[in-house]
Design a protein that fits this description.
Blueprint lengths: L5 H15 L1 H36 L16
């Protein structure tokens, strides 16, 4: 099943181009590229805001606490 030759893939490509046309395929490619670019920018912004939150949370204060077991009633 996974051993398709290059000729199989070329035939599939030709059929896809005949069904959709080159203009529609180009538009799909541009839309996909724009989506990937937007995703990368979103991840970059999320990483920057995450770094700011870590700076605030890691202000160097130590909180000392003791955990006690809850008694069953």
């Amino acid at each position: 099943m996974g051993s398709f030759s290059i000729w199989h893939w070329l035939i599939v490509l030709v059929i896809v181009m005949l069904v959709f046309g080159t203009k529609k395929l180009r538009n799909i490619g541009q839309d996909l590229g724009g989506a990937v670019k937007g995703f990368k920018e979103g991840m970059k912004e999320a990483g920057e805001s995450s770094g700011e939150n870590q700076k605030i949370a890691g202000s160097g204060q130590t909180i000392d606490a003791e955990v006690k077991e809850k008694s069953h009633s």
